[in-house]
Amino acid sequence: DAGVIQSPRHEVTEMGQEVTLRCKPISGHDYLFWYRQTMMRGLELLIYFNNNVPIDDSGMPEDRFSAKMPNASFSTLKIQPSEPRDSAVYFCASSHRGTSLGADTQYFGPGTRLTVL
Amino acid sequence: AQSVSQHNHHVILSEAASLELGCNYSYGGTVNLFWYVQYPGQHLQLLLKYFSGDPLVKGIKGFEAEFIKSKFSFNLRKPSVQWSDTAEYFCAVNPDGGFGNEKLTFGTGTRLTIIP
């Protein structure tokens, strides 16, 4: 399997522009997660989906952020309008359905390094 | 809300030294515990995980971790580190073990630097 695929790997944009990050989870995985990693705040969960349905979006910082999962093999995270404080590495991760014991291993993609000027 | 504490922000060791990275969590119920590693410029990878059973868990690359429920801890250990272990290490907790809650709470990470 190719693992979790994210694009683009690097994105540089200007403040106010719309940014769309893309993720293809591992085939057969039921869960998809979006994280943001910064030096100041570490790794934060933004939102996660189960079977394409958003389950918990309490980590989404504000209305400028939105995420969709139109099908089992594709998800987007959109920032509109972008701001310099959104600069971070954004990771997508996927996992198979957890067992009765709880969450199973999450497999991370390579991340998208976003720089907003 | 649950939280995960990794008190060591940056650890510097010489090759062959023994390693122990601390991880404490604040949640009184059932938990699943994970250690992930992020090598420079790479994505996070699973080192090991604990769901139930033997509280001493062995992972890849000679790492192990011990779950001590009474101390709410899940410290990571390796008896002899190598230069290639230079990376950032993240502890993560999944509270409320069971169907329906797949959320992981991550610690802030510990940067490990191994000096040859």
Gist of the model:
Helices cover 0% and strands 53% of the residues of chain A. With 117 residues, chain A is mainly β.
What labels would you give this structure?
heterodimer; A: 117 residues; mainly beta; 7-stranded mixed β-sheet; 11 strands; 0% helix; B: mainly beta
Mean of residue pLDDT values of chain B: 91
* Helix proportion range of chain B: under 10%
Helix-and-strand structural type of chain A: mainly beta
Number of strands of chain B: 12
Uncertain regions of chain A: pLDDT < 50 for 5+ in a row?
none
Q: What is the assembly state of the chains in this entry? A: heterodimer
Determine the number of helices of chain B (DSSP H or I, runs of at least 4 residues): 0
How much strand content do the residues of chain B show?
over 45%
Give the strand tally of chain A: 11
Q: Mean of residue pLDDT of chain A?
A: 92
Q: List unreliable stretches of 5+ residues of chain B.
A: none
Distance between the termini of chain A: 36 Å
Fraction of residues in helix of chain A: under 10%
Largest sheet of chain A: 7 strands, mixed
Question: How is this structure best described in words?
Answer:
The complex is a heterodimer of chains A (117) and B (116). Chain A is an all-beta fold and 117 residues long. Chain A contains no helices and eleven strands. Chain A has strands spanning 5-7, 10-13, 19-24, 31-38, 42-50, 53-56, 65-71, 74-79, 88-95, 107-108, 112-116. The mean pLDDT of chain A is 92. The radius of gyration of chain B is 14 Å and the shape is globular. Chain B has strands spanning 4-5, 10-14, 19-21, 24-25, 31-38, 44-50, 56-58, 64-68, 73-78, 87-95, 105-106, 110-115. Helix content of chain B is 0%, strand content 50%. Chain B is an all-beta fold and 116 residues long. Chain B is built from no helices and twelve strands. The A-B interface holds A 4, 31, 33, 42-45, 48, 50, 55-56, 91, 93, 95, 98-111 and B 30-32, 34, 36, 42-46, 49, 51-52, 90, 94, 96-99, 101-109.
